[in-house]
Amino acid sequence: MLRPQPPFRTESLVLETVSRLYALTEENKDSRNIPEWIQSICNQIRIEAANPVSLTNILKHCGYSRSKFYADFLHFIGVPPCIYIRNERIRFAARMLLQKREAGIKEIADLCGWKTPYHFSRAFKKVLGTSPRDYRLTAPFRETSIS
Questions:
Q1: Is the CB of residue 66 less than 8 Å from the CB of residue 59?
Q2: Domain made up of 34-137: CATH architecture
Q3: 96, 111 contact by CB (below 8 A)
């Protein structure tokens, strides 16, 4: 069982989490404009965050070779496509954890398209540094501050 944390500790954890989420998509972006086709792919990934995204399908629709796609995506977004997809899925899951507080971790994992709660929890902790359960418990005053 978690011990009650001082208010400044909870606030610090919240700020750190929000900061990490922001950094996942903003860090290392090229200062030039992101090509429209990459923006479109990123938007589609965000919209489909609850569903596993197939890079093969993305490649078919964008019309670029695998190497060109990966190189351009990494250059403009700052992370490889598979990492971007994982991060967007975790961002979606973090919102669901706060919006659906009555739902269990397994239910959230299912809702967010993860194969198992274990796989979901490991990926969540790898990205945010805390388990889904602890994330939810350390943010009791937040409604849906993660966008």
A1: yes
A2: Orthogonal Bundle (1.10)
A3: yes
Give the pair of three-digit tokens for residue 100: 């659906």
Q: What confidence score (pLDDT) does residue 144 get? A: 42
List of the chain residues with pLDDT < 50: 15, 27-28, 30-31, 142-147
Distance CA 108, CA 93 (A): 7
pTM of the predicted protein model: 0.71
Q: Who contacts 128 (Cβ-Cβ below 8 Å, separation ≥6)?
A: 17, 20, 21, 90, 94, 135
What pLDDT sits at residue 23? 55
CB hemisphere CA count around 99 (13 angstroms): 14
CA 8 and chain centroid, separation: 25
